[in-house]
Amino acid sequence: MNSVVYMDNNATTRVDPEVLQEMMPYLSDYYGNPSSMHTFGGQVGSKIRKARQQVAALLGCEPDEIIFTSCGTESDNAAILGTLSIVPHKRTVITTRVEHPAVLSPCRNLEQHGYRIIELGVDKHGCLNLAELESAINDDTAIVSVMYANNETGVIFPIEKIASICKAKGVTFHTDAVQAVGKIPLNLKTSAIDMLSLSGHKLHAPKGIGVLYVRRGTRLSPYLLGGHQENNRRGGTENVPGIVALGKACEIALHHLDEENTRVKALRDKLESKILATCPDCMVNGDSENRLPNTLNISFEYIEGESILMMLDRFGICASSGSACTSGSLEPSHVLRAMGVPFTAAHGSIRFSLSRYNTEQEVDYVAEKLPPIINRLRELSPFVARK
Amino acid sequence: MWDYTDKVMDHFTNPRNVGKIEDYDGIGEVGSLACGDALTLTFKLDKSGRIADAKFQTFGCASAIASSSVLTEIIKGMTLDEAEKVTNQQIADKLGGLPEQKMHCSVMGQEALEAAIAYYRNKGKTSAHKEGRVVCTCFGVTDVEIRRVILENDLTTVEQVTNFCKAGGGCGGCHGEIEHILQDVQGKKNNQQSPVPAARHKKLSNIQKIQLIQETIREQIRPVIRSHGGDLELVDVEGSKVIVALRGMCASCKMSEVTMKDLVQAKLREFVAEDLIVEEEKDTAQA
């Protein structure tokens, strides 16, 4: 077994060796500019076209609906800000309280500039109320942005229903699908989604490459002014190795979609049931029915998440936590708080997020190492004795 | 990832003196589950009045556990007069330093020690109410506690105050007040960032008043309400009457009347005009 047991794949993923192999020549031999007139550059241009097709195949869309960006955050910002500048008279943005900061921060910044931001709440399972969403939309609504799946809990929102509601009301709909792409099947051809963000490093491509899907006919203002790249919407010479890598990663992800929802899901479920069986006073956060196949968010009462992570780290186990201490802020995860998870449980939350590289042996290893850690920390805690 | 010293990791992975002394002479309980860290410290004195034994139980991160553990080592063998003089800086130094954002862990140790000594001296009576006035409602930190960390650690910014005692680390609604205390303690009266707008004492035009009300809602009121799962909207301003609507979890909250008077009206009076009256509009709140 590896010295590192990596179960933090919602943070970032290992680059697939085939992906690395595919991109390497574009860091060395094929350094031409895809916009050049000569064959040397032109061959790079055709490789980018191929990558665009590979991404489109995974999403079920047309290649010309793909804009390559530098990351998921750029895609989210571009979608929201680029839509607002098309409809300057509309001043309301609707989103949710559990979005990633890549959506929440620009929205809160817009609020400083006079926009009205409606952040929809979620119930204790992390689910949205669609009737509330529908009634929030009015003539002033410029865009609705709701994430496909939550990065912390893995809860999947009913995005197709939301997209249809928005379409019926004539409002642009964007979804941050950074955690969903490659883990669950998507087909944008039969969907009403107008815009979708994805990030390469969450699906075994390297960091520094992302995509914004923009449906044909959806208006988006160009946001990086410069050259004619990406159909004049995002200037700047292309990140060729990143784009080539992302294309390959999408092609591979398409082949592994079934595995994510069978083998990886089974590993996650095994980890979950083993922990629940061996550790008292713990609970799973988020709707377990509508959940990404790889994500497990679990709270341990009376102890604090950073301590658990530091103990796991000594065994080479990588996970993350929604506790306040891990972020350097003093309040626990905004997602868990929005769900009404008690502070007592939010401080002790741990997220395990698996990938196709995880093995059954690793799951057994984590399930073996975790209970003594929980017991040890509870021995130190003043609350166990008091309860 | 935190840059913890080897000493911190040693005390975290092999904590000394874990537990609770059953026939303790002194006990100090500080922090809470909600705050994210808590410490129970107990000690037993020998015949000469020195601390013969000390034990701790801690809920918290690695640095909170390490701070508690090292504290028990520091105070063993001390008289109470000596122990009383232990500062949070001594705790941090003994650990080879703590990350700036984790200094509050050492302060928690010092506070528990103080509480335990006070318990012994008051013959088992814990003083029920905290000294001073609560400034940070999210973490229940008083002005007395804030003044003390500023003085003892020579702090100059709100961010530092948050790192040392958590005050201001939640909704951020008390940042202005912490700034005031900082200026007061450090004797800096010339600070340019006065949180009270200069326009306050002038006669405001209607537009200026509405803008100031919106700004106050945005910067002073909304962060507090958001941290409770709600939101607040300005509906209308008619003369000195400000009509607002509560949204989200606050709309159905039984405490909403208190929120209106103690928070919304108080802040608007402080920052905009003394004669403002706040009314809640309920009709359109739930569509």
Instruction: Please mark out the parts of chain A with pLDDT under 50 across 5 or more consecutive residues, or reply none.
Output: none
SSE run of chain B? HEEEHHHHEEHHHHEEHE
Cα Rg of chain A: 22 Å
Report the sheet-strand fraction of chain A.
5-15%
Q: Oligomeric form of this entry? A: heterodimer
Which architecture name of the largest domain in chain A does CATH use?
Answer: 3-Layer(aba) Sandwich
The main pleated sheet of chain B reads as: 3 strands, antiparallel
Shape of chain B: elongated
How many structural domains does the protein architecture of chain B include?
3
What does this structure look like?
The complex is a heterodimer of chains A (387) and B (287). Chain A contains 13 helices and 13 strands. Chain A has 387 residues and is α/β, with parallel strands linked by helices. Chain A has 2 domains: 5-12 and 256-386, Aspartate Aminotransferase, domain 1 (Alpha-Beta Complex); 17-253, Aspartate Aminotransferase, domain 2. In chain A, the strands form 3 sheets. A 7-stranded mixed β-sheet of chain A has the order 2-8-7-6-5-3-4, with helices on both faces. Chain A has a 4-stranded antiparallel β-sheet with strand order 9-10-13-12, with helices on one face. In chain A, strands 1-11 form a two-stranded parallel ribbon. With 287 residues, chain B is an alpha+beta fold. Chain B has 3 domains: 6-121, Sufe protein. Chain: A (Alpha-Beta Complex); 134-186, BFD-like [2Fe-2S]-binding domain (Arc Repressor Mutant, subunit A, Orthogonal Bundle), CATH 1.10.10.1100; 198-280, GMP Synthetase, Chain A, domain 3, CATH 3.30.300. In chain B, the strands form 3 sheets. A 3-stranded antiparallel β-sheet of chain B has the order 1-2-3.
Which properties best describe this structure?
heterodimer; A: 387 residues; alpha/beta; Aspartate Aminotransferase, domain 1; Aspartate Aminotransferase, domain 2; 7-stranded mixed beta sheet; 4-stranded antiparallel beta sheet; B: alpha+beta; Arc Repressor Mutant, subunit A; GMP Synthetase, Chain A, domain 3; 3 domains; 3-stranded mixed beta sheet; 10 helices; elongated
